[in-house]
Specification:
Elements: H1 2-16, E1 23-36, E2 43-57, E3 62-77, E4 80-98, E5 104-122, E6 125-137
Antiparallel strand pairs: 1-2, 2-3, 3-4, 4-5, 5-6
């Protein structure tokens, strides 16, 4: 198992040392399920997230690109239920400094738009809704 993780880590580092004119493709996908069996108010939560990213390295050290993030979760507590949805879309610029032939460090700066909503249900009826919409600088 340790050899597999080392090979994966080395493969990821080798992708970081890209050349001018190359395309960067990355992202994340996650799923989480949690269940708490308590005598008083047992809970269950399922969460799903997907975040693709694509960029173009137009100079030895500079990359520009776009990223998207989609998130959904659902929580159940006795007769109540909560649903959370979020999406973010934006652009980024990355400056990369090669330290040697196979290892680089980088800094990202991004700007984007995001929307988040929470909805709460009690016995199947919508009881409250709240959300956030705005711009982000990361």
């Amino acid at each position: 198992m340790k050899k597999m993780l080392l090979i994966l880590a080395l493969a990821m580092v080798s992708f970081a040392n890209a050349q001018k004119g190359t395309i960067l493709v990355g992202g994340n996908f996650s799923y989480n399920s949690e269940k708490n069996e308590r005598e008083i108010s047992p809970t269950k939560t399922d969460a799903l997230a997907f975040s693709p990213k694509v960029g173009y390295q137009f100079h030895e050290n500079w990359t520009v690109g776009a990223e998207l993030s989609l998130t959904y979760s659902k929580s159940s507590i006795e007769d109540g239920e909560g649903k959370y949805t979020a999406y973010k879309a934006g652009a980024f610029v990355r400056y990369t400094v090669p330290l040697n032939e196979s290892f680089s460090v980088f800094a990202d700066l991004g700007i984007g738009y995001q929307n988040q909503k929470n909805k709460y249900y009690d016995n199947g009826s919508l009881t409250s809704t709240n959300g956030v919409t705005g711009f982000t600088l990361v």
